[in-house]
Each structure stands twice: as structure tokens, then as C-alpha cells.
């Protein structure tokens, strides 16, 4: 065993005594383990997710997205609308077929007249509603029932053309239009009997022509 010089030996003893005194004065630390139930962990995860990321979209915003989707024709289909249009005391049938592939052929029957053409210039209130919803010019006004069908009531405001401002009812089931009321005083009330997308078969393309 190696012997230390007297000075170092004294220093070693003093250091040992100081450490012992420090340990005796230091409070003993108790380790407490808390078990969090699985439900608590899930709730904590939700809090971290919702507070750490972007705010969750509102229910109204989700409804608007569904409306835009429902009023956007799937590829290679023909939009078919059938409705009754009322202006003042006059009510007439309205029917429209529109192909969503170039050259965008359409056929429309309204106010006793029938016309055909090509391009995207056809007068389609549902397409106008889709554009207004997509641009933020519409909001959910109420949850209601329309002719026995659960529906959302939409209010359209801020359109550049005053005639397009009004009210629309869309189905809660598929977000397709049930009624569109355009313009205050001098507008039209359009009650939909059918709003569907037909496959672009030869027979359905003949309907457009």
C-alpha cells in the first residue's frame, strides 16, 4: 500500500468528512412514478396535435368543401339537371345536359325554348353556386329540412352580380342542390327534381345533341 505524505493524508480525511456532511444534509429524493391511463394518453396526444398544428377546419368549412365537390362533375360524365323554375307567377320546366369534356357540348330547355351549343357559357345556376361557394361568397345559415329531406340552408352574398345573391338548399346526404333562389325581387326559384352525373355512353351523348 502506498503511503501518502502527511499533508495529503490530512487533506483526504477532510475531503471525506465534507462529503459525508453534505450527503447527510441533502434531503432524500423520492421518485414517484405516475401511471397515466390509456385514455389520458390519448387525450394528451389530441391536445398536442390540435395545439401544435394548424387549427382544425370548422364544420361549416367542411360543408362548403363537400358542396363544391358535389357540384363538380367527375371525369368523362354528363351533368343532367331537371327542375321547375318559377319567376313571378310563371312556372316552367328546366332541363340541362352538359358534357364535361371538350368541346363541352350542352343542351338546355328553359322557358319553352331549346338550345344546344359548345363551350362553358351555358346558364347553369348550380355551376354559379359552386363558383360562389368556392370563392367564399356563401355561408351555412341553418340546418333544416326541405320537403322532408335533411338539408343545409346556404346564404349567398357579395356576388358581383346582384342577381346571383340569394339562398340555396343542399341535401345533407350528398350535398347536391334541392332549391336555389336567386335574386331579391325579379329572381328565380329553382326546385330540383334531379341532379345527376351520367356516364358518357353513346346513348347519353345523344341526349346532349
Question: How would you describe the overall organization of this protein?
Answer:
The protein has 209 residues and is of the alpha+beta class. The chain contains 5 helices and 9 strands. Helix content is 31%, strand content 35%. The protein has one domain: Lipoprotein localisation LolA/LolB/LppX (outer membrane lipoprotein receptor (LolB), chain A). The protein has a 9-stranded antiparallel beta sheet with strand order 4-3-2-1-9-8-7-6-5, with helices on both faces. About 17% of the residues have low confidence. Strand 7 and strand 8 form a beta hairpin.
Name a few traits of the molecule.
209 residues, alpha+beta, outer membrane lipoprotein receptor (LolB), chain A, 9-stranded antiparallel β-sheet, 5 helices, 35% strand
Helix content: 25-40%
Average pLDDT, to the nearest integer? 79
CATH architecture: Clam
Cross-sheet strand order for the largest sheet: 4-3-2-1-9-8-7-6-5
Top CATH class: Mainly Beta
**Which fold name corresponds to the CATH topology?**
outer membrane lipoprotein receptor (LolB), chain A
Q: Indicate how many domains the architecture comprises.
A: 1
N→C terminal distance: 112 Å
Topology as a string of helices (H) and strands (E)? HHHEEEEHEEEEEH
Amino acid at each position: 500500500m502506498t503511503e501518502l505524505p502527511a499533508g495529503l493524508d490530512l487533506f483526504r480525511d477532510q475531503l471525506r468528512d465534507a462529503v459525508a456532511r453534505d450527503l447527510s444534509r441533502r434531503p432524500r429524493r423520492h421518485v414517484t412514478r405516475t401511471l397515466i391511463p390509456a385514455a389520458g394518453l390519448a387525450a394528451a396526444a389530441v391536445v398536442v396535435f390540435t395545439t401544435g398544428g394548424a387549427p382544425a377546419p370548422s364544420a361549416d368549412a367542411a360543408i362548403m368543401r363537400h358542396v363544391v365537390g358535389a357540384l363538380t362533375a367527375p371525369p368523362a360524365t354528363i351533368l343532367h339537371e331537371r327542375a321547375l323554375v318559377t319567376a313571378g307567377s310563371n312556372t316552367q320546366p328546366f332541363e340541362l345536359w352538359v358534357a364535361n369534356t371538350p368541346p363541352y357540348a350542352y343542351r338546355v330547355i328553359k322557358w319553352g325554348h331549346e338550345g344546344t351549343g359548345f363551350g362553358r357559357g351555358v346558364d347553369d345556376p348550380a355551376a354559379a353556386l359552386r363558383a360562389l361557394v368556392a370563392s367564399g361568397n356563401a355561408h351555412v345559415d341553418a340546418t333544416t329540412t326541405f320537403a322532408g329531406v335533411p338539408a343545409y340552408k346556404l346564404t349567398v352574398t357579395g356576388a358581383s352580380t346582384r342577381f346571383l345573391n340569394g339562398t340555396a338548399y343542399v341535401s345533407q346526404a350528398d350535398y347536391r342542390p334541392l332549391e336555389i333562389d336567386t335574386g331579391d325581387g325579379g329572381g328565380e326559384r329553382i326546385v330540383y327534381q334531379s341532379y345527376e352525373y351520367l356516364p358518357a355512353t353513346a346513348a347519353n351523348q345523344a341526349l346532349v345533341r
